[in-house]
Amino acid sequence: MISYNSDNKEKFFKIDIGIGLVLVVISCSLIPVYVIYSIWKCYGINDGEGYNSINAAIALVALIFNILAVIFVFATYQDARKVAKDNTKNTNFNRVLDILYKQLEYTLKNYEAETQITIGQRSFTSYKDLVSDFKDSVQVNFGTGAYLKMKVETLKKYEKVLRFLSLELEVYSKVITSNNLSIEDKDFFTKLIADNLDKKLRETVGLFQNIFSHFQKTSTYKELKESNANLISNIEFDLNLVLDYLRIPRNEDLDFLE
Known about the structure:
This protein has helices at 6-43, 53-112, 127-144, 152-178, 183-197, 201-215, 219-227, 229-245; strands at 117-119, 122-124. It is mostly helical.
């Protein structure tokens, strides 16, 4: 059953306009047909020899209808192409959505599964618990300026979170980018996945990159880069990936793998 929504109203309006134009063209075409018929008839041009007045008029009408038929076929072809393109787009969108939701089931299991994650003197019961602590820690570091003297234990927590996110989000990013999707659809799917993990995930990662860009300019960062080079490199590498996967614009002050 066709619902008479705005889209259908627009389609019906176009059909009405099209029919109206065809009727106008046909009506207008009768005028030159009548004129030619009258001239042929009045002056007896070739009358009785080959084309008479009636034949000439019929030939002109046939020509006009042939032209209209060509225009109609072309318009129908263009409309069919548009419909096929829209159908392909919708099919592709639904297929990607189905793949992402199936993958999301596995990610949420990994995210919420009970596991023992020990970092320094602290233990976490799941990656969900770790990410929750990551969000609180980022807020504290940003609000108090504690990032100026970031501790190794805190950085190891950030490393663990970013590594988890980079590994899990890689699959979604490949599915989204490898399909012919619009920028709006890519943004929609990315936000959908991030929000299913945590409503403030993208906001927190965006805030973290701001903190880390400031941290990179401190003497503590330079010291830790010498004493804990692998730790710093891992954070920068995975942060770079996560920003891409979550489609978060990079901070211009952020330096990677110098």
